[in-house]
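Fold it.
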Amino acid sequence: MRGFRGRLAAAGALLALSACTGGGSTTATSGSAGATAAAPATSTTTAAATTGPCTLRARQDWALAQLRDWYLFPETLPTNVDPAAFTTVQAYIDALTATARAQGRDRNFTFITSIAGENAFFNSGSSAGFGVRLAFDAQQRLFIAEAFEGAPALAAGIDRGAEIIAIGTTTANLATVASLLASGGSGAVNEALGPSTAGTTRILRIADAAGTRNISVTKADFALTPVSSRYGARIITDGGQRVGYINLRTFISTADPALRSAFADFRAQGITRVIFDLRYNGGGLVSTAELIGDLLGGARTPSQVFSFTTFRPERSSNNSTRNFSPQPQSISPMQIAFIGTSGTASASELVINAMIPYLRANAALIGSNTDGKPVGQIALDMAACDDRLRVVAFATLNADRRGDYFNGLATVVEASCRAPDDLTRPLGDPAEGSVRAALDFLAGRACAPITATATAGTGPAPQSTAVRLDAPNELLIADDPDAMQRQVPGAF
């Protein structure tokens, strides 16, 4: 989620938990909590910018002060953790938040990151990489789950469904994915793929419909397109029924025009049934989540609640209520099928949860259980050191004041259908497993419900781990994720 929408000024992004659920960008000084509206899933309160030296101890002391001032679970903060025992600010933060993490309430959602890097991503989707999402199947084979337009991999002919068999810096030192996993797990695969730095080149042995071949790909700066130009928005005809399909990769400000355009088309064509594909969406700006609510809320009135944002008692002056605000492009769907996985988090979950009080069993979760992030972060900045602390500071609730889905939305939604993430078919394809199940739900056909235990959310994995998506696939998570990788799980 993103920043306080009131006086807490400008710049970061509200991350609902570790993913985000943005809500406008703001920057405030630590202690300037007089915001008139609370920060959503990714908030920025340019906290206490300091002018002192950026020593490790100074940065650690600053992080502790912010946590004591804003953390949603202050009773869990220890009083006897010696910062001298830690060699990084993040390691110290992990120790401070260990109790809440053990309780499942802050699963590595509080973290330190770069102000410049995060602003670049939330403002324009800017990042560096191959421009793909990577996922393991049940046999631990590594596949391209998605390839982004305007990025190096797709330009080199690498797209969804391609298997990466081996990785190297030259054809002479190609290491198979199987051997990397055997020697060092997913961390070894991370290392083989190289740093998220423009100019990093790797040779990838790829197998797809065109055969097996070696492809040289160089990481480059690119701007992520939040709504794909290939399959991001379309109308699917199924059994004589027209269904609006939209796939949103992440909640950033550049998504807004594409969302408005897609819904304007849906409105013009009388669409009343929608598939909203959020299967890999780790969240982002609360403001974008609110816009989606408005675009789906043509039947709602300005007096009806989209979400409540609540801080700890000492910060309750920042609590806020966000009502629906129908837009010229808004539609009034009778049914919505939300495609999700455990890679679906934060702002994505906020949108789904917000629609339950109004559509009940006509709003279904399709695919597998979501990650479980009913809380959001604010951004506190130590500008002199390019440090942004994303601290879990608020909870989000729907109109029924429900927000207790730390174990994912599977037990909260009133309808669900279990479905696979079918890497053999393009996203948006009516025959792809999850899209097919969504169409079946909208047509009234029976399905097997999702069980919360099948793919319980694990949160963005901190080190050398993978996030469960559904029965066969796991997104590969970067060991040291940058701003894009935190919001776009599996991105490299």
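The chain has eleven helices and 23 strands.
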